Amino acid sequence: MATLNRLLGKELERITVPLGPNDGMPTREIFGVPCVLDWIKNTLPELPTEAGAALTPQEELDDLLFNFISSKGRLIYDKMFKDLIPMRDEVWELKTYQLRIFGWMYRKDQFIAVVPRRAIEVKRGTRGYDAAKKKVIEARDRIPLDEPKFVGGVISNVISGL
User: What total of structural domains would you count in the chain?
Assistant: First the structure.
């Protein structure tokens, strides 16, 4: 078994957002499996902006990352961060109008992203919530992290500041 730091550059990568001098300090962390970083780099910039969206998908993700990571960010439970049913699976999603990022909370304030999708893909078709949950659970079982591999329970157990 290994810690997050020992798996960086192998099984996981840190996902960051630049914070300026007035943006607060990082209070939470996001890590991603390699396909998430590849999706952010190669797929996300090419996604079309959906009708009714105020921002591009890239801008939405940047805003979501800022709100999750920064002490000055505003993360809203259920609108931007939500646990999926059944809750005992401890699979979470980061949400924007156009995007969903599925993963789990390894430790309090440490999210591991596994499945990035457009919201429209999740809501229709074969790339739904059940498929995303299954991929998250499979990744959590496969990645050789120290036990316990996830933190669960009520929202105050998994994230600070809500």
Answer: 1
